[in-house]
Amino acid sequence: MPSALVVDSLIGPLRLESADSVALTAIRFDGRSRSEDPVDAAAEVLREAAAQLASYFAGTLRVFDLPLAPRGTEFQQSVWRELAEIPYGTTVTYGELAVRLGLSVSASRAIGSANGANPIPIVLPCHRVIGADGTLTGYAGGLARKQALLHLEGVATERDQLELF
Description:
Oligomer: single chain
CATH architecture of the largest domain: Orthogonal Bundle
CATH class of the largest domain: Mainly Alpha
Shape: globular
Order of helices and strands: EEEHHEHHEHH
CATH topology of the largest domain: Arc Repressor Mutant, subunit A
């Protein structure tokens, strides 16, 4: 049975979703409940996801341990699996991610597209992927959220330098 739970976070309300009450299938930045949301918002997987996210935002959790079921193409799934391997507090470029997947750096755009389609941001840390020149580029939740997540993890960004002037 599909279920959803809206939780507050450092970057605004997040809507957690599970299609089967067994695995997390989505985290949405809009954070709004929808009229079609079933009453089963208390699915164990959503309560556990909410607890782990709260610990992450409190700075006490660095690795999520949740059952995940993101829906996407096989290529997208391969990119999302690789996202899960990027350590807390580090960044990689789209080109580096392509190379990790056995592709050429020229596949950066395809990697970016798959990254942008990631249905479980934060847990599958697409915010840790940056442009080749170190800039923050493309984030479904907006660059301010991406920067906030990186700051939470202790990563300085090029935007920090711009804000000094």
